[in-house]
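Dear all,

This email documents one entry for the complex benchmark we are building for the journal club exercise. For each entry we list the sequence lines for every component of the assembly. Then comes the predicted three-dimensional structure of the complex as a token string, followed by one or two observations. Please use this as the template for your own entries, and keep the labels exactly as they appear.
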Amino acid sequence: MKLRLCLLLAAISAVLAGTATSGPARRPRYGGTLRVEIGATVNSLDPSAGAATPQEAEAKEQLDALLYGRGQGGADAANGGTAGNGPFRVASWEAGKRAVFAANEDYREGRPFVDSIEIEMGRTAHERALDLELNKTDFAEIPAEQARQAADRGMRLSTSRPNELLALVFLKARGAADDARVREAIARCIDRAAIVNFILQKEGEPAGGLLPQWSSGTAFLFATATDASGAKEMPQQIAGSPKLVLGYDSADTLEQSVAERIVVNAKEAGIALMSRAIPAPGTPPVHGTEVLTPRTVHVDAQLVRLRMPSPVARVSLTAFVRTLGPLAGIADSPLPQSASPEDVYYSERSIMNSGLVVPLVWLPQVYGLSARVRDWTPPVAGESWPLADVWLEPEDTR
Amino acid sequence: MTFRSKLFVNFMLALLVSVGLVAGGVAVVTRRAFDELNRQHSDALVAQFQREFGRRGQEVLHRVQGIADGESTVRMAIDLSRPNADVSVYVNDGRGVAQSHQLDFLDFVANDGSIISSAEWPARFGYKMDWVTQKEDWATRGSFLMKLDTQDGPALALMAVAAVRVGDKNLFVVGGERMGKEFLASLVLPSEMRALLYLNLDPTFQPGNLIDAAGPANEAERFAPLIERERQQPGEETAKITWTIDAASAEIFHAIPLAGRQNELLGVLLIGNSQHTVVTLERHILWLAFGVAAIGVFLGLLVSWWGAARVTRPVQKLAAGAREVAEGNWNARVAVRGGDEIGQLAASFNQMTQELVEQRERLIQAERVAAWREVARRLAHELKNPLFPLQTTVENLQRAKEQNPGQFEEVFRESTGILLTEIENLKAIVGRFSDFAKMPQPEFGPVNVNDIVRSGVKLFEAQFSAVGRPPITPELHLEENLPIIQADAALLHRAIENLILNAMDAMPAGGVLMLRTTHDGGNVHLEVSDTGTGLTPEETERVFTPYYTTKQHGTGLGLAIVQAVIADHGGRISVESESGVGTAFHIDLPAKPAHRAEAPAMEREEEQKEA
């Protein structure tokens, strides 16, 4: 009965969240160039061409949406084609560096407000934040952990709902991690609140389950508190005090900070855990060292980011299971039979009970905007940037 | 070994001992001086390090205090003093502040001891650093060494703590500098010196914990005994490590224990002083000393040789004079120089030879007189026998002329016959003396002594066993491989004949005549012995004297001739005899007569002329 009441409350909160509206509308105007900076480097706009890194794949999806329409992708727009179904078309293209998209006058949903979009690629988070402050760019993604500082400096930010899960995944068939007690000890010792408050600077939420509260409505049923005393007792029951390695993406500073914090938590609980960077594919080796690849670096567990493909809990959970399945060996976990909160919850609980996936925090998407950007609405989970709906305030009217 | 050589060896031994003592003394003094220099060097470096260490500590303290006094820190302290303060905003401040103040370690610690921000280990925020909140006056504590836990494991750091007090709450600023290779690299050390640091972070000696300015030290295991001693009983200690068999590779390490706040041993600083320059300099000095010693020894050798020669030259001259005297040159004289013992000895030598010459002259004179007397006696004795019949015959002739003229003719014929006979006897006697006086000079040729001996014995074979005479048994012991010598076969044959005749005369009752030949190298030895009556010692001494005989009808020239022949061949003859047992003559003949062997013959001719 209590569970049903909780699920009802969760459904109501999810509906209310979905109907929330943005700020006051103003009369839009046409014209101007929207300057966009992204961290990834996209080497090809060909939809059939693969991406070298997840970051590139993600950025490419955003650019594809601008060229081919939301959720579409047309093979006919490859190689800088001028015609397409999206709101923009390619005006100029420098692979991996810069792109200019011009407004598509024939866009079926109407011409975008801006005349063009200039996209600078390969800009670091620091450069993006600096350019926003210096008004050299109009739109850029800001890492969640830097949002608070950016806001303190007066930067205009737009934050989405938490829709990206940072989780610890025990890799299958890696020896020490096969012991459920070891996995449980590590899961108990993790101080999620400290990660959110200190590392994420309160931008995010502790994660106890695989779905956020606003999506499933049942996240509060999964514990997020630290059980330090319980964690300290468990290693004493484990013979041999196994030494585990926790891997993280070498290019991801947030993952590194979280991994190091987990190592400290584990050390205080008496668990031998060390962190190790996993180089991104294509990372040149440091001189004098062996070439490290994700396959050659031995890790027992790994931090992974999972972005929700949809606000629908069932869809996201199914996608997560498919993503994590090969890594953690949970491919056989039961998927929700229907979209009902009960089915989703039971499926999620089943996965959590395996102890192979330890959700850590939910991260929002934070966007930095210049003062002249108008009518920006942060996209919901699974949607691309709605830049076609954005218009720019003229310089003299601000 | 000659006297000069002995003297030279003694000089050299004395010189070598002196040089050795001096060289050894120089080496010992040099080594002590260098050891003292090393000690002073190490002491100076230790003092320098301790000053540098203290200066670094002050520097760290000033930096930490500077951070604590900074506006942002004070603002942080004020913020944290408020109820329900949000400490999360400061979690990343540590790293930036540490970098700007050039500190390896920096922690902001709240009043309850929890870490607000950590530069060296950012993920440790929220955890306690209880030792900071202990009751200690950090304002007066100064810097101190400390073992810190870091992400990469324990580390040694030079730390300082400063407190910012707002209200009743403290904000602690804990900062420090890593005691590692960077610290060692920053130490200003003279050339050929280096510093190593052992981080005493583990219960047992770990080679990886020993570092130098470049990183982990090479051959760290060599330091294990020194480190272990320090771990057992901390204190300044010195040890020498020789890296290779070359002594110049050695280093002297001065160990300085580094203690923490609780006086626990946290590290050991090793100041290494290379011995390369010292050993090279020491070797240079020793080589120089050896070179000087070698030159000294060489010069000493020359001087010793010259000195020995100078000292022994008069002695050598004395020895040469004595040799000359021994060889018969009694007129040898030695130059007298100086009035020292050698000069007195030379003067005494000259006086002695002078006395000897005079005594010899007197002896020769006496012997000559005695010889002439003997000749006169023998001549008178020989001549007396024929003269008496001559006198009787002449008196018979006179008496027959006066008393019986008729029988005078008959008496005259008989008397003249007797006179002629006796005159012949006189001529024979005179002839024998003349023969002795006219001994011929030998003509040398290859001679086998055994053949001479055999032919001589064969000559007398009939007489050995003559009827009416006791038999004499000849025994020949002749060595078959006797070498051929250069000799006059006829003279040698005559000498052997005389010796056999002499032996036969000595054995009137018969006996054994033994002749033995042997050789020694190229020299031939001949022994002729008999079992006759033997000789008295006095007869033995005079047996070779001319005209001396023990026989009733002997001329006393036989053995004298034998001696003359042997002497002409450059040989020697000696006799040994025992009365009633027998006599043995020993003759040594050289393979080839010396040139001076002719001298006796020439001298004899001169004597004959004088006679």
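Observations: Chain B has four domains: 70-179, 182-274, 341-435, 441-610. Chain B touches chain A at residues 88-89, 91, 121-127, 151 (CB under 8 Å).
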